Every structure is written in C-alpha cells, then in structure tokens.
Amino acid sequence: MTPRRLAVIGLVGATISIVAAYGTAFLPGGATDFGALLMVFGIATMAVSLMTLGAVRDGEKLGILGFAFAFVFIVLMGGFALAVMLPDSDSATTELFLGLPPRAAIVIYGIGFLPVLVLPIIYAMTFKDRTLTEEDIARVKAAAAAHAALQGPEDHK
Amino acid sequence: MIPLNALLQTAALPPLTQPVIVGVAVAYFVVVALIGAWATRSTRTARDFFVAGEGIGLIPLTLATMSATLSGFAFIGGPGLMYSLGLGAMFIILPAAITNTMSAWVLAKRMRLLGEVRGLITIPDALRVRFRSPAAQGLSALAILIAVIGYMATNLLALGLVIDAIFGTGLGWGIWIGMAIILGYSVAGGIMAGVYTDVFQGSLMAIASVLVFYYALQAGGGVEMTRSILASDPAFFGPWGKLSPLAALSFFFVFGIGSLAQPHVVHKFYMLKDPRRLKWYPLLTSVALMVTLLLFFGVGTATKALVVQGELAPLMRADDATPTFLLRFTPVLLSALVFSGVAAAIMSTVNSFMSIAAAALTHDLPMSVGKRVKNELRWGRMSTIAISILAAVVAQASGTLVAFLGIFGWGLFASTLVPALAVGLNWKGATREGAIASIVFSIVATLLLETLGYLKVFALPTGVTVSGISLAVSLLVFLGVSRATRGGAGSEIDADVRMVMDT
Fold this sequence. Notes:
The complex is a heterodimer.
Chain A: H1 3-24, H2 33-55, H3 64-85, H4 102-111, H5 114-131, H6 134-151
Helix pairs in contact in A: 1-2, 2-3, 3-4, 3-5
Chain B: H1 19-41, H2 46-51, H3 58-69, H4 77-85, H5 96-118, H6 123-131, H7 134-167, H8 171-220, H9 223-232, H10 245-257, H11 263-266, H12 281-292, H13 294-308, H14 321-329, H15 332-368, H16 376-395, H17 399-423, H18 432-454, H19 466-484, H20 495-502
C-alpha cells in the first residue's frame, strides 16, 4: 500500500475517531478517558495523514519524511497518553523539570515545543529534493505560459 | 466547560490614559499611516490590492502570517484565560509547534503554484479551479463573507475597547476611530499596506512579548512561581489545567487542524514572490509565533503566582491580567509598547479580513454566476469601505451578539475550508460533489447549531463545541460523498491543476 493511500485511510479513521470521541460526551456520565484517548488518536492520525498527503507524491516512498511523521505521531500520542495516564500527584514538593511539574512539562515541552526542533528542519532539508525541485518550477512556468496563451490570464485590473 | 466566546474580548479594559502610553500609541498610529501612504503609491492593480502583486519576500510573509494569526486575544484574552484555566488555555496555542510545517506541506506550495499557473487571487478561486466548479467558489465565498463580518466585528469591538482605554474616547468612538484608521491604509494600499504594516506590527509584538516574559519571570520569582501555584492550586499545572481532557483536546483539534482554514492567513501564500523561499517558512514562522506567544504563558502564570503569593489582589475579571500585570510590574514604556502591540495585532487581523471579504464580494461572488466586475480595484476599495462600516455597526451591537458572531465565523472557516481546500488540493479522489456537500453542510450546521445554542434551545455536553463537531462531520461528509460520486464528471481535474497537485 502506498503512503498516500495509507494517508487517505488514516484520514478517514482519524475523522471517525474524533466524531466518536465527541460522541462519548453524550453518554450518561459524560466523556471518559477512553473518549479522550479516541480524540488523541484522531488528532495525531489526522495531522500525520494530512502531512503525508501534502508532502509525498504519487509513487514516492516516505524516506526521511517517515521519520518526521512517525516522530510527530509518537510525540502527540505518547505525550497526551502519558498526560491521561500518569497519576495526579502534583504538589509544592514535586520535582520540577525546567520549572514545570512532570505532566505539565510533557505537554508544554514535549507536545508544544519538541516538534519545532524536528519538523521545520526536515522540511527545509528535504525541500529541494522532495518539495519543490527546479524541474517542478520549470513545469509550473510552462503551464502558466500555456494557460495564458490559450485562454488569457485571469487579469485583474 | 469554557464557552468559546470566552476567547473574545468584549468587556472594557482598565483605563490606560497615561502620557507615555498615549504618546507611544500616537507614534504607532503615525508609523502605520506612513507605511500606508508608501504602500498606496505601489498599489495600481487589483492584483496589487488583493495579493500584493505576488511580490513579497520570506520575512514579510513570515511576519504578516504571524501578525494575521494573532489577534488581540494573544495579548489580553489569552493571558486572562491562562490565569483562570491554567494549562488548559495552552491547548489553544500548543498546536503552533506543528501547524506551520503542516500548512507548508499541505497548502503553501500548492496554493502558490496554482496561483501562478492560473493567476488566482482568492481562496474560492482555488476551489473553483480545483473542482471546476463556480458553485464551490460562490458557496465558499458566501461562507467567508458571513464569517468575516462577524469576526471583523469582534475584532473592531476589541480595538474599540483598547482605544477607549488608552485615549478615553468611549467605546462607540473607539470602534469608529479604530475602523477609520485601518480603513485609511487598507482602502488606499490594500493588502500591500497590510503586509508591510504587519512587518512593523509583528516585530513590535515579538519584541514586546519577549521583554514582558522576562519581567514576568522576574516578578513571579522564577521557579518559585511554579511552587507557589502548586501549593495553593495544583490543578493549574495539571496537564489539562482546569478543563476536562476532552475540552482541552477539542481546543487542540479546532485550533490545530482548523489552522489550515484561516483564509486571512492561507491567502498570503499567493503573495510570495519566489516559491523557493518557502524552504525556511515553517521554521521562521514557528519561531516567530512561539516567541510572540511567550507573553500569553508568562503573564497568565505570573499573575496567578502573584495572586497566590499575596502580591496582587485576586482579579475581578480574567481579562484584567495583562493590564494589571503590565501597569504594576513593567516599565511604563514597555506597557505602552504592549498596548500598542495589542492594537497592532487586532489591526493586522482586521486588515487581512477586509481584503478577503472585499475579494469575496467583488471577485468571487460575481465569478460564481459567470460575471466579472470591470474594475476590480475600484470596486475592491468600495467594498472594503462597505464591509468595514457594516462590521463596525455590528460591533456596536450587544456584546453577546458580537461574541456569537465571532464564534460563528471561527467555526465556519474551519468546517468550510479544511475539507475542500486542505484535503481537496492534496487528494485527487475528492470530487466536486464532495466539496459542495461539505461546504453546504458546514454553513447549515454551523448556523443552525450555533443559533440554537445562542438561543439556549440546547446545550452541548462538556468538552463538545459546535466548531469541533462541524469540522469533524464536515470532513466525513466530504470524504463520504467523494467516495460515493467517484468516477463521475465531478472527479475530473484540469491537466494543469493535476500537474500542480502532482508536484
């Protein structure tokens, strides 16, 4: 199965998971940890699926992008799952990590910061070979010229 | 459950009428006017007016994107929410770690290239060429127009509150003065003026945020800030703050995935001069956003710590967190910069909305019924005036109605544009019928559910928002209808558009 096909399936699964997560809130007693985990799975899968659809071309393999997407999935799934499952024992004597109690540190530094150290760097590293090659630009310029010649540009005065 | 309208600034700020604050604000408005005057001379065509002549560089794109993304909420409402909800409030901004790279992969390149191939200037333009559907263009323009009026109204109300607090003008005059200032440079210089004022405004916001964060750490006592809060209110630093897990995650979903559908931000991809410059866009935008959001976390947390340490009296209203902290714990010049930064954030957002709403009115809606406006530049300017006056009138309506319209707009952007635009530009299996069905569903569902909720006909359970549900179900409608109509005429894609999608 190609990465793009997998991404479409992932997008469908993620969307269903998020709808189901919201659905659990309508059950007697309100949303449970299971509902939260469904939402976590849905968000992580949807983000990775969308990035895959955007970054990987037809017939291409994931390559180093697979590392980036796996990293995001693990950070989101793992970070949120830890936040759900770790015991609620924060107090004034809790050992702090960079100024925050452990669960807050996982959320702020793990989910809110770590991806910035990886995703934009991999985006830049792969940009010339995977995102926009000189051949792509040449094709686009040719298509723009052809469109202008055939139909006239959509001029805006 | 925190209602989403708590994210909007609708209550008065404490008076800020001090000579330094007034002086800095006046100086700020003068600089904006000068930039506007300069940009006006460069605006000669509708393409200049709506997409800055496709001539901006990476740094202006980065700062303009950051400025348009952040409204006054990042400086006033956000720290207030942090003060009252603890870490739960961070779920609004946490997705920033991934959203900029995600939007670069999903939208930036394709929109920029599609714009070049077909000479596009609006988001609905992209939907028209992708799905070969004037109806998709018209419906999405309608949704954008409805959403923008409400969203602009909430931002003009917030700007009126800031101007009233600084100059003591009264709220009504504050709204109209604020609107007139933005209108002045937007009508004359269009998005060109907007982008370059955003560069100035974004720089101001980032510098002010870093400095305030430093003072917040100093005032709160560094690590002692955390310990004092943990001693008196440990839930503040719980992983979800004072929200339920589902409510916090719902914020992450709506603001994370929904970031792909903010037309005032996404539209800026058309403006980049050279698409190769996108290489460093995610890194620069992510860093700029994070730096500017330091104030959100720092002031909210420091104010909470100062209250539990007995240095500050408990706040009467959460939105007082930023003004109270700034006036008590930072030099007056810095607080003056921040208050100008709040105005800057609001003005840059409103300017972007003016541009996309004017384009929807003068370009997209006529095109969707097979008409073209002869002089889009002149009509674009006139539309900008009309839309701004309408939004200012709405802003003067009661606070709850304005808040309702703002929330309505927020949800509508996400549910209308994420499926058809973000998924549609990247998935060749998407069909015209899927796009139209999801847009129509979004408009109807958001309008119906938000209105019924506003009228208190029903209340959603804890953790559930109309924005979140509409976005998720709209995606399901898009995927399901596309699957069901696959292979028909609605699946066809023009060769040049297919080439861009394959790139």
